[in-house]
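Morning!

This is the sequence you dropped in the shared folder:
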Amino acid sequence: MYYKRLLVSNVRNLEPLDLTFSPSVNVICGLNGSGKTSFLESLSILSSGKSFRSHLTTPVIAREHKAATVFGEASDGNTLYKIGVEKSIGKGSSIRLNQKPLQNNSALARLIPLLVIDHQSFELLTGGSKFRRSLLDWLVFHVEQNFHVNWLSYREVLKQRNALLKLKETQARDVNIWAPQLSDFGEKITGYRAKVFEVLATQLNELSTHEKDFELDFRFDQGWKHDQSLKECLLESFDQDRRYQTTKKGPHRADLLFTTGGKKVTDVLSRGQLKTVVCRFFLALANCYKDIFGNAPIILIDDLPAELDKNRAKILLRQFLNLGSQLFVTGVDLPYFSDIIATEQNIKVFHVEHGIFKELEKDSAINLAAV
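The structure's back. Tokens below.
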């Protein structure tokens, strides 16, 4: 799947735009605050109905406007899909696919697989478990069709249990009534995750086989003791959960653990090495998707020069291109992308200033990148 066209109206600081893209590489350059990230945000909205920057509707909409509209065309090589997403203050989001309304965004997310790599992504190893868990779940969502509905059900039951834990007069029997349902949904979720994790771990290990400086170990922590059922754990942990007024164990606490030599990678590896691990992890996700479905996800990379040196970036982009991914890459300085602009035949280069996009002719882009 790849994007062919994007039309945007009233999204953040972007002026109205109508752009067509290369199915291979698209480079967007401009100063900070010019609209590069808002552009990527618009592409992400087309893939899921959601922004990767905020779960709220209002920040996406330009000032003094009540609604933002994103329209796009995507193709799998055979079929053209027309997608429209409108975000309105007070009304939320409405989505249309080929002029027909979609009641939920999960169908859209399955249709257009997309991964975002930004500054948060490079905190994969140093940040909290929520982000690591969300990336595993991105792949699980696509692979296991029943994962999403079970996750929504689990989250709703968890909400009920946590609400009871916050009440002073709550007794164990009141809370434990939710244990069978929570356990049923939770065990299913964990089963899906564990199955997909094995595939992901194999990919990551293959990508790490040529690493000479360190050996990487990768493990899935399901969120409670492996020698207990989730129901047993919930019943056993009631006193602790009531003390903290929240459920401390379960798949909502799952994590991915990265170690080397028995120690956390964050305690041993350099910042550059940690970024190498992050890049491999995203490549492993994309590889897994390609192996299972036969096509690669779209990749959005925001402000790549801020995270990787030119040589590492060149290698990373080439690896994604070899998979067949469509790339959208942003940065401040065009010379940073000089190698890929000069060598990639099917490439488009855009310059953005004050929310206004201008496509550059390739010869012009090569000359500017060589400065």
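Headline: The chain has 13 helices and 15 strands.

More detail when I'm at my desk.
O.
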